[in-house]
Write a structure and sequence with these properties.
Layout: E1 3-9, E2 26-28, E3 31-32, H1 33-42, E4 47-54, H2 59-66, E5 72-76, H3 81-89, E6 96-101, H4 109-119, E7 124-130, E8 137-139, E9 142-145, E10 153-162, H5 163-176, H6 183-190, E11 196-199, H7 210-214
Parallel strand pairs: 1-4, 1-6, 4-5, 7-11
Antiparallel strand pairs: 2-3, 6-10, 7-10, 8-9
Helix pairs in contact: 5-6
The structure holds cytidine-5'-triphosphate and magnesium ion.
Protein name: 2-C-methyl-D-erythritol 4-phosphate cytidylyltransferase
Pathway: Isoprenoid biosynthesis; isopentenyl diphosphate biosynthesis via DXP pathway; isopentenyl diphosphate from 1-deoxy-D-xylulose 5-phosphate: step 2/6
Enzyme class: transferase
Length: about 220
């Protein structure tokens, strides 16, 4: 299953409180968060293209470090994650695309393989984990209701789609000026296409807060 990756690194990492974008944080052996999330896809020969989205202020560093890598192309992102993904999708040249947060450096080959297997029969799938906490719907400071825990999952990335499908959904959201919190939500809004759940694990964490670095 050949595919493109739209790798989103065009944020600022505000909540991480580093003096630079969190995707440039060094994990070990001088390997950054981004090196790691990019590396996992570059190791996969079926990943034919990496559309790597960067923030304007990171342009020089990104070009110096990543522009000579085969299969990688760099594009400037937008103000929000959704904007960056929407821009990146214009450049995708494969029939299937995995949209991945560069801030998730611990995604595994096994997880990517499981997503590829799902894409053989599905047009949309994503990594999710069952919620370990009880989730409550809250309104105005009071609990409204508690969804059954076995029905509640946390969405992760990669989120994978038939390229024509997700492009159509992104175009509609742009026209309507509607903001989703992940990519799959756009498919829920605009289509009846089933979105297959592929089990991820807690290790596929998004580096978000300062305490995430200590792990
Ligand atoms: N992202 C992006 N373009 C944006 C905003 C976010 O490509 N305009 C990317 C980030 O680089 C990250 C992923 O989307 O890899 C998930 O977003 P998030 O964890 O929120 O990262 P940031 O927006 O950088 O962090 P913060 O919200 O704390 O500023
Ligand atoms: Mg953000």
């Amino acid at each position: 299953m050949d595919y493109s990756v739209c790798l989103l690194a065009a944020g600022k990492g505000t909540r991480m409180k580093l003096p630079y974008n969190k995707v440039f944080h060094r994990l070990k052996k001088n390997k950054t968060v981004l090196d790691s999330s990019l590396g996992i896809f570059l190791q996969d020969s079926e990943c034919k293209q990496v559309v790597l989205m960067y923030a304007k202020e990171d342009e020089a560093y990104m070009k110096e470090r990543y522009s000579k890598i085969d299969r990688v192309e760099l594009h400037e992102g937008g103000l929000t994650r959704q904007e960056s993904a929407g821009i990146g999708l214009h450049f995708v040249n494969q029939d299937y695309v995995m949209i991945h947060d560069a801030a998730r450096p611990f995604v595994t080959k096994e997880q990517i393989d499981a997503l590829k297997v799902a894409l053989e029969t599905e047009d949309a799938c994503l990594l999710m984990i069952p919620s370990v906490d009880t989730i409550k719907i809250v309104k105005d400071g009071y609990v409204e209701t508690t969804p059954l825990r076995q029905h509640v999952y946390n969405a992760q990335t990669p989120q994978c789609f038939k390229t024509t499908l997700i492009k159509m959904c992104y175009e509609k959201s742009l026209l309507e000026g509607r903001q989703a919190t992940d990519d799959a939500q756009l498919v829920e809004w605009y289509t009846d296409v089933p979105i297959k759940v592929v089990l991820g694990d807690l290790g596929n964490k998004k580096i978000t807060l300062p305490q995430d670095i200590s792990i």
